[in-house]
Write a sequence for this structure.
């Protein structure tokens, strides 16, 4: 049984589809207490009450006024992240923001400066850091299993109406493919792929060249983006995400001086097989590994609770948040200008 006295009380602002996922992840994490959720949609509040037995508010302002809530999860659509993050900080709440933290680097800096001024903490739900395929990639690079890695390709490529309609209203209001909500693949999956890449490569990003296209599902935002990234040590990387791939590319493709690694692509539940091929002492070696994988990574809130308990830095730090958004902005600027962008 949970120790209610020592738990950190959390409210979820925006009880849409992702908001209810946050509720579920918080509820199952020792050390955290899901206290309340807010939404303007009655049906979503009913779902929250039925599933979690928590307080619900029909206005976000009411949730921010709840004195028991210490941390607030901002889980609105993207274009409203900055507004409610600033209002939560103004109310004295510490915040977890669903990715991306904001629409651009400028909005991100505004949120982080306000938090610093008020001596409040901010983190972002970049949960793909805890994906098992990514853990394997970090292990292979860290142990030097395929030698020095000089080329990294990371992609989320698939074909499904599920992405466009991934929201509380489904295809009745597919906000992920609409500009006014901050939709598009760069804002959605791009933040995950870039965050992972920057964790693998601590060297400075030197130049970025990117392209964003709306080809199949929408003309308003990108349903396909890619970017070539050059690091200061000469390593090159490609990040690519799209909902237009009837045949998916690999989730990961790494080239090292002594070997190559490939992880099967497609839907996250299909990232379940890795192949590593290398040469040593004139002998070819090929190994296939099985990776159990679910749709949603579950490690963020455990790491968050541990950081609070041990008074450690939060699992995603302000500096890391800024660097992710700096690269996101560079990809967007490159796509608009048709030129590479130096950082």
């Amino acid at each position: 049984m949970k120790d209610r006295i020592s738990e950190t009380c959390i409210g979820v602002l925006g009880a849409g589809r992702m908001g209810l996922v946050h509720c579920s992840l918080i509820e199952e994490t020792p050390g955290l207490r899901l206290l309340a959720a807010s939404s303007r949609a009655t049906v979503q509040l009913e779902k929250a009450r039925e599933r979690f037995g928590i307080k619900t508010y029909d206005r976000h302002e009411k949730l921010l006024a709840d004195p028991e809530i210490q941390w607030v999860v901002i889980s609105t659509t993207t274009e409203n992240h900055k507004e409610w993050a600033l209002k939560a900080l103004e109310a004295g709440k510490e915040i977890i923001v669903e990715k991306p933290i904001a629409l651009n680097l400028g909005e991100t800096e505004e949120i982080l400066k306000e938090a610093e001024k008020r001596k409040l903490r901010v983190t972002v739900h970049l949960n793909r850091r805890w994906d098992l395929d990514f853990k394997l990639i970090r292990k292979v690079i860290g142990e030097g299993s395929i030698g020095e890695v000089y080329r990294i390709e990371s992609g989320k490529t698939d074909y499904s109406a599920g992405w466009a309609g991934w929201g509380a209203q489904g295809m009745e209001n597919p906000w992920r493919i609409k500009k006014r909500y901050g939709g598009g693949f760069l804002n959605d999956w791009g933040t995950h792929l870039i965050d992972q890449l920057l964790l693998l490569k601590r060297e400075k990003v030197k130049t970025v060249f990117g392209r964003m296209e709306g080809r199949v599902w929408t003309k308003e935002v990108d349903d396909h983006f890619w970017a070539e990234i050059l690091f200061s040590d000469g390593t090159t990387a490609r990040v690519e995400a799209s909902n237009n791939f009837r045949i998916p590319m690999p989730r990961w493709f790494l080239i090292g001086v002594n070997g190559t690694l490939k992880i099967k692509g497609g839907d996250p539940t299909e990232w379940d097989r890795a192949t590593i091929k290398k040469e040593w002492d004139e002998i070819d070696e090929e190994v296939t590994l099985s990776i159990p994988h679910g749709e949603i990574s579950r490690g963020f809130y455990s790491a968050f609770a541990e950081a609070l308990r041990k008074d450690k830095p939060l699992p995603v730090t302000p500096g890391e948040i800024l660097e992710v958004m700096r690269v996101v902005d560079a990809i967007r600027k490159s796509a608009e200008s048709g030129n590479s962008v130096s950082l």
